[in-house]
Amino acid sequence: MCGIVGYLGKRQAAPVLIEGLYQLEYRGYDSVGIAVFDGKKLRVVKKTGLVREIETARQAVGRVGIGHTRWATHGDVTVENAHPHTYGNIALVHNGIVENAAKLREECEERGEAFYSDTDSEVIAHLIAAEYHGDLLEAVIRACGKIVGSYAVAVFCEDEPERLVCARMRSPLIVGRAKEGLVVASDIPAAAEEGAVLYSLEDGEFASLSGDEIFICNAAKSKIKKEPIEFSEEGRADLGAYRHFMRKEIDEIPVVLRDSREEIARNFCFSDFCKVLCQTEYIQIVACGTAYHSGLCFQAALERVCRVPADVFIASEYRYMDPIVRKGTLLIAISQSGETADTLAAVRLAKRRGAHIAAVVNVKYSSLARLADTVLFTQAGREVAVAATKSFNAQLMVLYLIVAAMASIKGKRSPTLKGFESKAARAIAAGEAVQSWVPYFAGAKSAYFIGRGEDMCVALEGSLKLKEISYLPSEGYAAGELKHGTLALIEPYTPVVAVLMRRDIAEKTMNAVHEAYSRGASVFLVTCFEEYCGGKEITASVLLPKCPPVFSPILSVIPLQLLAYYTSLARGNDPDKPRNLAKSVTVE
Ligand code: M6R
Asked: Which domains occur in the chain, in start order?
């Protein structure tokens, strides 16, 4: 993970770098640093914590610099391990993992070079310094040739203070012209401003920025011509009147459902893609975290509505299980960021084995969007909070539109997706009632979420949301499985949330509710059936609008997102920036 920025131009570099880093905080926020060259000396400011910790460094004088916000992989969260890393005349910021760092470091140490951090990144500064003979681009190319792993780097050399050099291998990187200068950044929002012209680097590409010139090339230094990417400044994070992005993003769900539906209606490949899917021998779905839960919901709907089987894989498992990619396999990768390393690795493997790759992805210029043969974009807009909310609902909308289209091609009846926008708005309003549930959760030792069928997929997502931002241990479970072991964990007042959106299995889920209640649990219900809300075993409930059960996860997840948000607040956490996590997991 981590976010990197660089600036070279007529403005003071420090404020540009710091503003850029705020936009990249979603990529990691356990430490931060910038290095600015004041014409004589390189000034490095590094701190543990959020970008705001280096606000005073705004005053640093100098028109060239690099910056970094870190999510620790190699080495603890310490000032020493924060970037930029310097060695000799070289300063560098890095996003990625150097897999052969230990061996490379040993070689440097044998030459008598000292290291100041435990990071894998510092070794890159040493490699570049060793390769430097007056041409920074040449040195970076040579050093990168020795690295096994992933990197996006921005490098400064005191001997060439009018230049920045960067390189990309499996970690995103853009370069471009912004106001009165040249910029480098891990993601568009850090560089997007009026009039900016931005280019995305591909794996194995390098860029040298100096004066007004951006020279992009490959390892043989052959010039590469690029088309600028389209971007909108609206992508910049803006809280408006909200306290937290997560709460704002939940309120955006109705709009992203509408936008995602309209985007699919505009996509002229969509119906052909659905026809291909109908004839596909074998459908595989890969994703991580919340996107994996979207995959489970999709699988359930595909099977129930279209009678089409599909297998869903956790992307990080897929690549290590020697997956069977039969002739005619179509793999659908689901991802908000399109940069999740595990998902990309699974996609690359499936592609090598001959699968057609389709992506359901939110970020337009992401690596996944570029790798896939067919791309369906969700229109969730920028999601800043680490906990995915609106992107999940948007993914479900796109995936369910596929289901509905396939059903119609196959001559089967599909429930409608019409009206979900307004129902989602009603679900948000109804979901606010979970604030009264919070005292039961905030002080609990653990919590459980149960359901059957698609309700179980939502239970898994509710549990993930709660644990990642409230740090409360929780499990999402198949309601019927409770009695096979997990029931032993239920103690008096243990909070249990049951999701119940399918009438045909409502009584069966209620059996699990009775079992939990009899053991003293405080049971909460998310349902669209009023008749189940009043029973003595139900402590409190949220009543949702009725909708086709197979598509109900779009609505039933909303109260659980709100529950996680309010519980996180009650436990004194920052819901937008949970400890140990980052929004975009670009390392394996
Ligand atoms: O960007 P992606 O959708 O590929 O991210 C996948 C997961 O890392 C992500 O959903 C993660 O689980 C979220 N923090 C969950 O809220």
From this structure: 3-235 (3.60.20.10), 243-418 (3.40.50.10490), 431-571 (3.40.50.10490)
